[in-house]
Amino acid sequence: MGNEASMYALLKELRDDNPVAYVDHPDFEPFWAITRYEDIKAISQNNAEFINNPRTVLIQREFEQALLSKFGTRNGLETLIHMDDPKHRKLRNVTRNWFKPGSIEGLSTNVETIAEQYVDKMQSMGGECDFVRDIALLYPLRVIMAIIGVAPEEEGMMLKLTQELFGGQDPTQSRGENVDDGLNVLMDFFAYFTAIVEDRKQNPGDDLASVLANALVDGEPMEQLDQISYFIIAATAGHDTTSATVGGGMKALLEHPDQLEKLRGNPSLAKQAAREMIRWTSPVRHMMRTTTKDVVLQGQTIRAGESLCLWYPAANRDERAIDNPDVFDIERDNRQQMAFGFGGHMCLGQHLAILEIERFFQILLPRLSHIEMVSEPEWVQANFVGGLKSMPVRYAFNPK
C-alpha cells in the first residue's frame, strides 16, 4: 500500500460492505481480511483460538516458501511477534522491565538530548529539508540504537537493512527482486547481531544488548536464534514505526493548522498528540492470525487452519468504535486506539514510542515560526510497516 487516500478508501469499503473478506490473490496464500474494530479486538484478545504461527505477516507466496525451506518456518527468523505462549510470554519477560513506563521515563533525558540534536540539525539546514529523510528517519534510529548499544557510525547500515526488510515491495528500498535478495537481508542481520551477542557476553554493559546476550530462560542461556531474532525486532520495529509516526504526524499537523497552532501554544498536549499521531498514521498495517478451530465472524465461517489478516488502520478509522475517526484531534482520548495491537501481543515498546514523539514535538514546535510542505509527499510501498518516504518542507525558526 503506497498511497494513504486509496488505502483508507479501500479499507472503508471493506469495513462497511465486506468486513470479513476472503482474499485469493495469485501472489499470496489465501487469507481473510478483517477490518472492523470489534472483530480485531476480539481476535487479539483470544490467543488460544487465534495463534501467531505459522503465518504472522503477509508475505508473497514465493518468498514464504523460500523462508520455509531455509528456516523451517513460513516466517523465517522467529521473533516475538511470531511466537505463541508459553514461549512468547517467557521471552517477552526477558526485557519487560526495560520497557515498563517507569523505566522508559528514566530514558527521558537521553531522548530529549537526541531530539534537541535533530531539531538543531533541522535549524542548521537553512530553512529547507526533506523532513522524512533528514529528520524523521534518523531521530528514532539514534534513540533505539543508543538503547541497544549499537555504535552511531553503524546506524546507516542498520537503517538500510531495516528499509530493505520492511520496504521489500518498494523498488527504491528493496535489495533486489529475487527471493535470495530478501533472504540475504535476514542473513546480514543475523551476522551483525551474532557479533554483538558474542561481544556483550565477554564485555557486558548497561545496554539492552547486554541484557539479551546474557539472558536466562527457564534457567538456561537464551538460544542464539532467539537472541538474534529479539535484536532484529527491537532494532527494526523500534525505529521504523516511530519514524513513520514522526513523519506522518508532521504531515497531519501541516494539513490541520488549527491543531498545529494548538500544540505549539500548549506543549503539555504533546503526549495526547503523540497518541493521536500514532492512531492517525497506524504504521503497523497488519498482523496475521491462524484459527485453531472453526469460527464464525460477521456471518462468515472460517475453518480451522485458515489465516486472518487484521488491518489496524481500518480499526483505527472505524466509526463504530471511535467518534469522528476521520478527524485529527490532538486532544482525543486515545485509550481505545489499536495501533499498538491489543491483548498479549500488545507492542512492548509503546511507551518508548510515545515518549520519543512527545519530546520531539515539544522541542520542535515552540522553536518554529513557520513550516509548510513544498511538494507532494511520497509513500513507501509496503503492506506490513508503512509510512512516508519523502516530505520536502520549507520552514523558519524563531530567533534565539
TrEMBL record:
Entry-linked PROSITE patterns: CYTOCHROME_P450 (PS00086)
Q: Which cofactor does it need?
A: heme
Which keywords does UniProt give here? Heme, Iron, Metal-binding, Monooxygenase, Oxidoreductase
Q: Is Membrane among this UniProt entry's keywords? A: no
Q: Can you tell which superkingdom this protein's organism belongs to?
A: Bacteria
- Oxidoreductase as a keyword of this entry, yes or no, is yes
Q: Which Pfam families match?
A: p450 (PF00067)
Q: Which family does it belong to?
A: Belongs to the cytochrome P450 family.
In its UniProt entry, what is this protein called?
Cytochrome P450
